[in-house]
Amino acid sequence: AGMAACLWEINPYLTRQEINDIIVQSSSQYSKPDNYVGYGIPDMSVAYELACRLTVGPDPEDPLQVFVQFTQQEVFIRCYTEEPGTGSVEIFDITGRRLAYNNNLELNKGQNDLKVPIDVIQSSSSLLIVRFSSGSKSKTVKAMSLRDR
Q1: Burial, 1: exposed, middle or buried (Cβ in 10 Å; 0-12, 13-18, 19+)?
Q2: What is the pLDDT of residues 83-94, one digit of tens each?
Q3: For 31-35, 37-41, 100-104, 142-146, which range has the lowest pLDDT when averaged over its residues?
Q4: Which of 12, 30, 55 is the last residue of a domain?
Q5: Domain of 30?
Q6: Most C-beta atoms within 10 A of its C-beta, which of 37, 47, 97, 104?
């Protein structure tokens, strides 16, 4: 409860569900919960970083913004687009092996939150390269695994 209160005080615009999701995602066993300790022990520094990433808003100077974080099972992408339409995402490990591709993303104007399933367990890489495209704009972003911090 104290951790949730701290996160909410720092980021008052987050919803109760977003705070809960952040705490779960920062937990030591997030990718493989069990019946003994559930999701495990939350990590406040990871939770703080996740909360800060969620509260970053659109930049009028940059028409396509992409923020990425990932676990061993999913890549979370928050992007801001100027116009609604379709987009695509390609995800690579550090060796250049493509882990995921989706060229059928429906995007709204403004903020879009996407989850792309991956299997990083096959890869020893804790770094991913994400290429995101929307319309004629494209952006490539590097992301480090939340569990390796």
Answers
A1: exposed
A2: 899 999 998 888
A3: 142-146
A4: 55
A5: 1-55
A6: 47
DSSP-derived letter for residue 82 is S
pLDDT at residue number 34: 92
CA gap 79, 141 in Å, rounded: 11
* Phi-psi domain of 124 (left: phi exceeds 0; alpha: psi -120 through 50; beta: other): alpha
Lookup result for tokens 């704009």: 137
Convert the pLDDT of each residue in 13-71 to its tens digit. 778 888 998 899 888 888 889 999 999 999 888 888 777 766 555 566 666 667 676 66
Decide if 75 contacts 143 (C-beta within 8 A): yes
Residues 38 and 68 in one domain: no
Give the pair of three-digit tokens for residue 135: 């319309």
* CA pair distance 16, 18, nearest whole angstrom: 6
- Sign, Cα dihedral of 147, 21, 29, 9: positive
pLDDT (0 to 100) of residue 146: 55
Lookup result for tokens 């569990």: 147
Structure token digits, residue 6: 């701290």
